[in-house]
Structures are given as structure tokens and as C-alpha cells.
Amino acid sequence: MTDSAIPEVVINTHEMAIEKPRTTPKRFRPSGGAVVMGLYLLFLMLPIYWLINMSLKTNSEILGAFSLWPRNLTFENYALILTDPSWYMGYVNSLIYVLMNTAISLAVALPAAYAFSRYSFMGDKHLFFWLLTNRMAPPAVFALPFFQLYSSIGLFDTHIAVALAHCLFNVPLAVWILEGFMRGVPKEIDETAYIDGYSFPTFFIKIFTPLIASGIGVAAFFCFMFSWVELLLSRTLTSVNAKPIAATMTRTVGAAGVDWGVLAAAGVLTIVPGALVIYFVRNYIAKGFALGRV
Amino acid sequence: MNKTVNQKAWFLVLPVLILVAFSAVIPLMTVVNYSVQDTFGNNQFFWAGLTWFEDMLHSDRMWNALGRQLMFSAIILAIEVPLGIFVALNMPKKGFWSSFCLVVMSLPLLIPWNVVGTIWQIFGRVDIGLLGYTMDALGFDYNYTQDTFDAWVTVIAMDVWHWTSLVALLAYAGLRSIPDAYYQAAKIDQASRWAVFRYIELPKMAGVLMIAILLRFMDSFMIYTEPFVLTGGGPGNATTFLSIDLVKMALGQFDLGPAAAFSLMYFLVIMVISWVFYTVMTTLDKRDGK
Asked: What is chain B's Cα-based Rg?
């Protein structure tokens, strides 16, 4: 279809005359783009700036006077979170189940993605579709059954319960992303390796894994991300010991109203891990969201 | 790539199968179980047949939630898709600024969903929020906790803020895959900017755009945390979308039967959409000859 697209291009005689002195429009066009991008990035950053602004104020300043930047800079809100175990353990709990989930998801998804990308077998298409439906399943549907399932097997309020529950949408995602990357590796590599006498496990670990290293990185990033941002399931499956930071944040609503400063500081701290890892995968984010299909 | 037929590949898929079956099939069976039974407490259940399904099909509550849900999804798609394409067209092509834009744009995607709600809650409040304060100062009667229209505007603004970057990133990736030769050919033909967009860029972006639209539709269809934190489904029931209503019913009121019937119908809708998604995706894969 791409071939037919080019000849249809309209010839515009009007522009021919303008085409010659190219210098002025050329200097103007990128600046138009810069204005659009500037406005869009401003729109993205304003709410985040406001959150940071709030986190650096005391509560009396937040409620007392409206100001665009903190007049009396204070780090008390952060100090409170970083010294109170009931606060910072929320971050630790979240990180524990997120990392567990990423490890489990990748471990099971790698062989499966290899099978999907290399072999055809009975029911493979149906299985692939069924995996996708789980990525699309609303967590709200699963909240109550999960609660009962994990309570009955004694895993309620443990990190592993949340990690397993998040596998529901992360494993299908990891399989899809990895399959997309593995398809880009020519099959001849596998065949040559087998002829050279590699067994499947050694081939997979020594030769194949380094070839799709970027794919593994992207899949890990997406597992990390979707497990990190999810609240409904992680809140339903925990009470005290494995309570995620997202659920801890509801604590700031007390009898004396909302503790806005601490709430904002806790919010800022949840953005940090994402902002750190995003830099490494910036060129692959789109590919990951497109499930490995760009 | 032509694949070898190998039934032993099942062994490689087995771990995924067991894991996902454990966390998907068992809970789903629980839901099915509840949907056909009634209980008066004490864990005593009675066969109720399809009454819950009939009840739900005749309940205004569900239809209203579904109506709100469809309207929400339609509005955010109508805003996010054109805006995302527009942003992608204006993004720097390479160098430092390109990376910078990618990183800043990805930032909202990585914020926990309840924090997204919190950010907009703080941002929109008339007394302490920049948005609310500005609107108030400009003379608008803005209050998202009291006024239905304001609540909708705020929820939609939040979703546009949160997810437009996803559409933009995908469109950008599609644009990057266009070889320079296409643009040079268009230049030789003296093609207008619009013609370049319509006949070169849009067809080349079609695949990723389709993915973006379907992803956005499905994710917006099961949105829960952000509006729950921001408005709590209010004022009244104005922003109670399907998932919020379902959680209210299942965990709040513990109406297991109706909630389960509701879940199954909800799930069915999602299944149909997923099937469309899957068909589009596999067709695209075939067309690209991968």
C-alpha cells in the first residue's frame, strides 16, 4: 500500500514560486514547533510544579496565603516521611512487590515469548488471544475474587500476593513485548547454534539473551511501571505488613482535615523512581507501548 | 517468518499458562459462581439462576454508569488523538531536545494513578490550587467538588494530561519510521504540508495510531483510581464510571450476586473489544510481512 501513496501527492503550483527563497520559512517553521512543544510541556509540568511547590510549604502557608512559590522554604514534610517507618515502609513495600513481580513476569515470559515467536503449535493463536484478554481485564472485576483467593491460601497481606496478582496484566504484556523483539532476531542464528552443538538452555542464556537485551530491558521497565502505578489490587490485597505507599497516602486525611504538605511530599517521592528509570528507556518507550510493534 | 510446527513448545508456555490460570481463571470462576447464587449471610448460598443478570439488565444504575463511561471514553479519544498527533508532528526530530521532550512527556505516564488524582485534586482546589484559584480569579464559578460540569471538565483535563503523551509517543515512533526518501519525493512534487501529512505521514502512522486508539479506549473504559481519588465518583453520581460503580457494589455494599453479574457483562464487553484489537494487530503484522 505504501507504493501507491507517493504518486497521489498533490502538485501545488502556488508553492513553486515560494519555494525558491527557502531561508526565511525554514527559520520560522522549527520555532513554530518549539512554541507548540513549549506550551504542551508547560501544560504537563504545571500540575507537577504545583505539587512540588505544595510539598515545600508548611500547612499554615498552604491554607493561609496563595503564592506561586514557597515563601518559607521547608523540608519538614519530607523529613517526616523519611523518618517515620509507617511512611517510608510504604515505599519499601511497594518496591519489594514491584521487583518481585518484574522478576516473576520476566522469568515465565521469556520462554513463552520464544515459543510464540519461533514455533507454531496446537492452540497457539487462541492462547495468545487469551493472554491479551487478561491485559485488558478491568482490575475492578478481580478485586473481590483476589481478596478471597489469597485470604483462603493464607497469602493475604504479603508482598508475594500483590506480585502474583499484578502478574495478571504484566505477564501478558511482557510476553507480547518480548515476542515483538524476538521476531526481529533471524531464525538462522538459532539453527546455527544448534548445529554447533549448543543445547537449548545454553543457547538461550549465552547467545539469545544478549541479542534481545534491549527487549528484556523494555519489558522489565513496563512490568515495573504498571506494577508501580497500580493501586486498586495492591490496596485490596494488603492491610498492614505489605501496605503500598499509594495506600499509605490516604492516612494524611485526618480528623483535622487534610495534611496537604505531607500528601504533596509523598506524591513527589512516588514520581522519583519513575523519573529515574525513564531516562534509560526513553528511546524504547513507544515500542513498549505498541507491544513491540513499531 | 515461517514458524516450525513443534508441539513441544507447549512446555515453554506452560509456566505462563499455570501462572495466569491461577490468577485469572480461578477468580473468574469465583465470579461466575457468585453471579448465579444468592446469600443471606453465614456463607449459605442458594441457586439464583439468571435473576441477577436480568436485574442488572433492567437496572438504571448500570445503564447510567455505562452511558457515562461511553461518553467519557468518546470525549477523551476525541481530544487526545488529534492533540497527540499534533504534538508528535511538532516534536524535535533528533538531538538533545528530542530526548528531553521524550523524557518530560513520559513523566505523567509513570506517576502512580492515585497520585495523578491527588495532583489534580490539589491543582484544582479553589482555595489552594493554581487552576482553581486562577479560574476563580478570572470570575468563573469553578468548583469541581460541587458542580457536575466542572467535575467532568477536571476529570477530562486530568486524563488528557495523563495520557496524551502516550498517543504522541506512538505517533512519533510511527513518524520516525518514515524514510527520508519519501519526504524528498514529496518536495520534488511540490507537495503542500497538508498533502505530506495526508498521503505520507498518516498512512505510515495508521498502524501505531490504531494501537494507540484501542489502548486508550480500553484503558479509559476501565478507569478507576484517578476519578476515584479526585471526585470520589461525585458530585452525586456524576463521575461514577463502570469500575467505580462495580467496586462500590462489590466491596462497599457487598452485593456479591449483582456485582458478579455486572462484572461478567463488563468483562464480556472488554472481551469483544480485545478481539477487535487482536484482529487489527494480527492483520497489521501480516501486512508488514513480519
From this structure: 23
